[in-house]
Amino acid sequence: MTFKTIVVHCDADKSIQQRLSIATDLAGKFDSHLVGLHVRPPFQPPVYFDGSFVMDDLYKIYEDSLANDQKAALSAFSMATEGRNIAVEREIIDGPVDREVAHRARCADLTILGQVGDDTPMATPRDLPEVVALSSGRPVLVVPYVSVRQPIGKNVIVCWNDSRESARAVADALPLLKLADKVTVLSFRSDESESTGAPEVVNWLLKHGIKAKVIEETAGDVYVGELVLSRASDLDADLIVMGVYGHTRVREMMLGGVSRTLLRSMTMPVLIAH
Fold first, then answer.
1. Which residues are bridge partners to 55 per DSSP?
2. What Rg do the C-alpha atoms of the chain give, in angstroms?
3. pTM of the complete model
4. Residue 253: beta bridge partners?
5. Can you point out the beta strands (E) in 68-132?
């Protein structure tokens, strides 16, 4: 497996250049076809409309905002890919952002999204990374809005809890793990007698030519999400790989606590899969 098609979500986020820098680097590394995807959300009239504005005026504001966001997003994509020896394509789709990104991700080997923060454009759903990971069946690379060390994937932490989701994530991350200088399988158990299955993962990775080491710890009452971030910092990792679990109900997201903590507090890219 390799990443022959990479989709990067292009919105009007101020931190998009970091996302695009990582996307173009990975596309060059894997000889990928890079798709810059911009989604134009539908017009949403105010829930409580008191008639103080003419609807035509509201729609004009929406259209102007739509045009400005599209111009900013695609200009950033063009600037990031100009002069790079990679195959690129721009796609503009109309519809709900989460639904359309997830739909496009199903026909990609990797989808790259930005971490959602206070400065994320209102058009981008607050739970976009979770929705795409849970509903696309494909790996999602979430890039923080804070500055990160590049290129990524030199020192990788694989979070392992012996679940279907963690197995899916490590398998999806194989192209990156094969190029890493250092891979650590990090696993937490509730007590000393519990088996995590982490040594078996290391043995499986070795058959793929990947040398990894195991760190097994007893978590106790420590919140595991925070502990993962702490260990990643201690090990100077530049990428975390983890499975996410949960489900979507209309606009309600139920997500595991560890996943939620990492996606909200991440300071390095996180590859997630379901």
1. none
2. 20
3. 0.93
4. 248
5. 87-94, 110-114
In the chain, CATH 3.40.50.620 sits at 5-143, 155-273
Q: Is the dihedral of CA 213, 218, 224, 230 positive or negative?
A: negative
If the chain, 274 residues long, is cut into consecutive pieces of 10 residues, what is the mean pLDDT of each piece?
Answer: 95 96 98 98 75 72 93 97 96 97 98 92 91 95 94 97 93 98 93 83 98 90 83 96 72 60 91 95
Class of the CATH-defined domain 155-273: alpha beta
What's CA 197's distance to the chain center, in Å?
26
The shares of helix, strand and coil residues in the chain, as percent rounded to the nearest 5, are 40, 25, 40
Q: How far apart are CA 73 and CA 17, in angstroms?
A: 10
Quick one: DSSP state of residue 126?
Answer: T
What is the spatial distance between Cα 262 and Cα 64, in angstroms, rounded to a whole number? Answer: 35
Homologous superfamily of 5-143 in CATH? HUPs (3.40.50.620)
The full DSSP string for 145-203 is SS---SS--SEEEEE--SSHHHHHHHHHTHHHHTT-SEEEEEEEESSTT----HHHHHH
192 CB neighbour count, 10 Å cutoff? 7
Phi-psi region of 103 (alpha: psi -120 to 50; beta: other; left: phi over 0): alpha
